[in-house]
Amino acid sequence: MSSLYAKLIAVIEQKITPMAGAIGQQKYVTSIRDGFITALPFMIVGSFLLVFIFPPFSPDTSWGFARAWLQFSLDHREALMLPFNFSMGIMTLFYCRRHRGKPGETP
After folding, report:
1. Which pTM value belongs to this model?
2. Structural domain boundaries of the chain?
3. Which of 76, 74, 75, 56 is nearest to 66 (CA)?
4. 56 or 91, higher pLDDT
5. Coil, helix or strand for 80?
6. Exposed / middle / buried, residue 67 (Cβ in 10 Å: 0-12, 13-18, 19+)
7. d(Cα 95, Cα 58) in Å, to the nearest integer?
8. Cα–Cα distances in angstroms (integers) from residue 92 to residues 1, 26, 79, 96, in the given order
9. Is the pLDDT of residue 1 over 80?
10. Which residue spans traverse the membrane (predicted)?
């Protein structure tokens, strides 16, 4: 078992690692990576908030906690949507700042 593992590690180190390193140094790949790193916290916060805003329960559930959560989210939907809209709005501003064009230029 350990010899198979050692062979696998050797193949990865000799063949795959140099190729992955070369691909990882390309400016397009690093741009995509940097974009995801920048946007990821906002996507996580926004996605997590959606679970609170739209609970994962059927409206006809009989579980008391789920019914209370559903009613709370219905009553306070506007206030709960503010942080979600804020996080997605900041992501939009980052995108617009990054992809702004010169006057008279079409995107």
Report:
1. 0.58
2. 2-98
3. 56
4. 56
5. helix
6. middle
7. 36
8. 50, 25, 20, 6
9. no
10. 35-54, 79-96
